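Question: Hello, beginner here. Any chance you could explain the protein record under this note? Any guidance would be welcome.
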Amino acid sequence: MRVVIAPDCFGGTLTAAQATDAIATGWRRGAPRALLTRCPLADGGPGFVDVLHAALDGDLRADTVTGPLGTPVEARWLLHDDTAYLETAEAAGLHLVPPDRRAATCESATTRGVGELVLAARDTGAETVVVGLGGSATTDGGAGALAVLDGQSLPRLIAATDVANPLLGTHGAAAVFGPQKGADPAAVERLETRLAAWADEVATRYGRDPRADPGAGAAGGLGFGLLALGAGVVSGATLVRAATGLDEAVARADLVVTGEGSFDWQSLRGKLVTGVAAAAAEHGVPCVVLAGQVSVGRRQAGSVGVSEAHAVAEYVGSVEKAVADPAGTLADLAEHVARQWA
């Protein structure tokens, strides 16, 4: 059996490469004769630059920019030919904010550093700048980035989205992602009010109002800010799928295994797992999801091309056990599932 292993990162526990290695380790134990193809992926969120660097080569660079808390951070980005690939999480990522400070900073975290990276890429001669959206500590609607970019001569901008959420409302940046960044219900309400006012200001200033556009709510509304500047939009998962040659690998496979930290309703709104499942479906290949946690029903999963979904936490008995040894428990689950497919 030929198996393509193509996961995203697992939240703050495993990078995409580490998750790929863990699944491959377990699969070999469960199905020693399987032929494995490793294809770690990203959808615009954490790991975007690393995955594209592995696929495209290019020149990996680093610049010191303003981090989400206003202090300097070193952010890496990729220059390939005349295109720069930036990762929001490198300059404004949630991992840059200690967990015990997130509640206090969720309303002030800034995307300023992302704007600084765009200018750094421009100054190297990049004609196109692709900004991977996801994994941010921010909910500023891109205000920090626009403070840097406003009035500047900019290259062609492309927003690579990891989600299709709008800026505002029950599926918007504050309501859906704010709690993940430390916002309690009162803070979410304040963020929503602030984002609505910011959207009005931006519409007046730029003559565009993309608040309802898919992806506007990505990276705490940074997607909205980039769209207001005239950025094009692409699916981060689709972009990476093309760059890594995923379709070619899937076309030769008998099974595709993908995964992420939490396979939930957000996964169905344009995230990487959906893109991998779509690639598998196009080639008539079954797709299995291995995730830290699964809250998507079988019918919902099937609607996006997922044949089976398995949760590490359920397999080992608790989230705590899964997090205590993320690579080991993911490998154990992969071994268990591999035996079923061998």
The mean pLDDT is 95. The chain has 16 helices and eleven strands. The CA atoms of residues 178 and 188 lie 6 Å apart.
